[in-house]
Structure formats: C-alpha cells, structure tokens
Design goal:
By secondary structure, this protein is an alpha+beta fold. Helix content is 53%, strand content 12%. This is M23ase beta-sheet core domain-containing protein.
Amino acid sequence: MRAPVLNLLLIASVLDTGVLAASRAQAQTVTPAPQTAAVSPEAIKQREQELEAARARQKSAEEAQAKLKAEITSLGKDRTQLNQQLIDTAANVRTVETKIDDTEARLRSLNGREQEMRASLDSRRGDIVEVLAALQRAGRRTPPALLVRPEDALQSLRTAMLLGAVVPELRGRAEKIASELGELVALRKTIATERDQLASDRDRVRSDQTRLTALVEERQRQQAAREKDLDAENSRAIMLSKQVGDLQGLITKMEQDLQSAAKAAEKAAEAAKQAEAKAAASAKSGPGAFKDRSRTAPAIAFAAAKGLLPLPVNGNKIRDFGGSDGVGGVQKGISLATKPGSQVTTPCDGWVVYSGPFRSYGQLLILNAGGGYHVLIAGMERISVNIGQFVLTGEPVATMGSTSQVASILATNASQPVLYVEFRKDGTPIDPGPWWAANEGEKVRG
C-alpha cells in the first residue's frame, strides 16, 4: 500500500509549487551550505568577465551616441531632412507607444485568464489526483517524479491514457482535464511571447526617444542661432502673460506687443490668403499636400484640413467639447488622459505665438494656424519650441509629465497627466471634432 499512497501524494502536488519550494528550504536548513573563507578563482574569473561585459556595453553606448551626434549634425545642414527625421521619429515613438499600450492590455487579460484557470484546476485537485492515479494504475506505469508544472501533468495524462485500458467514464474525465491543462500550457506560452514583445518595444521606444531628443536639440540650436534675442523675447512673453486674465487676452497681447509673435501672426495672415487662392485654383487637398517637409507656411488652409489632423498625443478622451467641465460650466476643448512622459506633436501647421506657463493651464502652447484659427495645447511638463517658430503637422513640440499639470477642472485624476486641446476661430472656441482624422490611416504625419 505504501507505493500507491506515495504516488497519490506526489501527484497531488501538480498545482502546488510550494511543496517543492518548502522541501528545498528544509534541505537548506538541515544541511547549510559551507561557508567559503576565500573567493574561489572561478568567482574571480566570473567577476572579471562581468566587468569586461559592462565595459563593452559602455563603449558600445558611447560609440552609438557619437554616431548619432554626427548623423544629427549632418542632418542639421539640410532643414528638409531634419524636419523629415523629426516627424518620422516622432511618429515611430507614437506608434510604439500605442503597441505597448495594446500589449499591456492583452497581458492584463491573459494574466487574468491564467489566474482563473489555475484557480479552477486547483479547486479540482482532488479529482485530478484521482484520475491520474487511476490512469497510471491502468497503464501499470510508475508515476513521474514530483509534478510541479502543468506541462508535467499534461504529459502524464497523455501517456497514461495511451498505455492504459481506460473505461469510457474515466477517459472522459481525463480528456477534459487534459484539455484544460493544454489550454493553460498554451496560454503561458502566449504570455511569455507577449512579454518578450513588450520588452523589445520598450527598448525600441527608449532608443527612438534618445534620437528624438537629439533631433529636437539640433532644431532648437538652429532656431536660437537665427533668433539672437530669443531669451529676451521669451522672458518678455512670460511677463506679458501675467498682465492678462484669459486665453483670448493672451493671444491678443502676444500678437500685438511681442515682436516675434506679431511677425508670426503677419505670416499666418499672408499664408492664409495664399492657401485660399491655391484652394480656389485646385480642388485637390488631402494628406498628400503635407508631404513637403521644406515648407515654411501651412500646406493647406486650416478650414480645408477637416478630417485630416492627428490628435497631438496618444491617450483616452476623458472630456469632450461641449460637455461638463466639472464645475458647472461647459468644456471649451477636449481633455486627453495620457501616460507619463508621452510625446506631444503638433496637430497642424502653424506659428508659435506663445510658449510657456500660463495661470492654471500649466505649460501652454498657442499656434496661429492662419485664417483666424488658433490651436491651444496645455498641460505639458516641457515645451521644446519657441515663440515665432513655424512647426509642421506631426512635429514633436512637448513632453507630458508624470502628473496633471492643469487645473482640476480639466482633469478627472490629479495624479494622471492630462492634455487639453482647444481650437478657436476669431477668438471663439469651436468644436475640434470635424478636424480629427477618422482613423490612423488617414492621419497626417507631416
């Protein structure tokens, strides 16, 4: 009787990995590892190898950084190429961010399913033990060594079913258990694959973000070289922003009193007239109009860009235009909950007429898109463009922080980054809905 009892005890541990862990802990307690007074030559050699590997990784990183710096410097000589790389890299970052979000969502679902299956199998451990024991007796085979994995249990079931003279009722129970174990094994393989993909995507987005940072720095270095009084203008803009109480007052103040913003407004007005004339001469307007990365004015009139513009950040819309703002008022724009550190890109072509902090909006960016249209983006932690600068659709302009930077009326959760976007026509907030692209395939990337 001793062998069958032992077999049952062994099989009962199929879903209880704690038995193995406990036995190992007990073994370690009874026979503690001998203490070594001196470091062995093998340990010294291993440490030397680890140090050498660390040095190799550092050298590789330095070489990659130097190569990237040289590449960026070369690109900087060609404005069109620099713009192309900026927009393409920003788009890559946005794409990988979306993939990471999707993978994380799938993993949450898969992990939940695995927990459910494990709980179901664990609740029927007695039945599994009974079926395994009966099958193994029928097959006259010794049960496998201590079973601690679903794969072991599944193999044991299959072997015993093939070798044993199994009655129909017992076979039915065994096949059901085998099916569930097989599903669990396949599920675990899927989870492992998803985790590997997630790690790969995170490495890729870090690499792209490093490249993007270098590209943005080169763009701003060139901008600073062109605008000698940039720092003075930015300081004056912050000072002027403290003299007004609302967004429209800020826009008016900037475009009237600040030289770089006034020039930007003039260019926007002139470009709008030219765009309208082009539109009248040609009915063709669509994503193809945005392909010229060397442009210094909007590709098409803002009014003609309906259905073409991308959202400026990856995120979930938590408040829409015209809805409640949470304090009894009406929302004048849209609010997008984002992940910490998300990349913010421009939804349209336009000139920067304000870039900096403003009251309860956190960091605020205002673009003059021409034709009396302004686009306001708020809630970022850092902005990487300056007043007077022309930016292209899809160009990286800011980065989200780790918490909300806007007033509580614009965010549902103060601990979550929230981007606020508002469109205005001749000073009046308008619904941005008609301008957003219906899907990713239609979005403009510059």
